[in-house]
Amino acid sequence: MTAGITWEEPFCGEGNNCFRIGTDAQGNAYIAVAGQEEHHLTDSRDALRTLIRDIKAGKADHLL
């Protein structure tokens, strides 16, 4: 795993799409495909929180 990042348990949607969300002590948030955490995207916790809220609100349904 990537040093300094605390990863949550994988979240798996329908099919085999599993993602992991992580955070670090500096306030950064990370998202990665489960098993490929070394290739993560990084942003602030606020940005990740907004992304999750928007997904839950259906704002990304057109991408599915």
Automatic annotation (TrEMBL):
It comes from the Bacteria. This is DUF397 domain-containing protein. It comes from Streptomyces massasporeus.
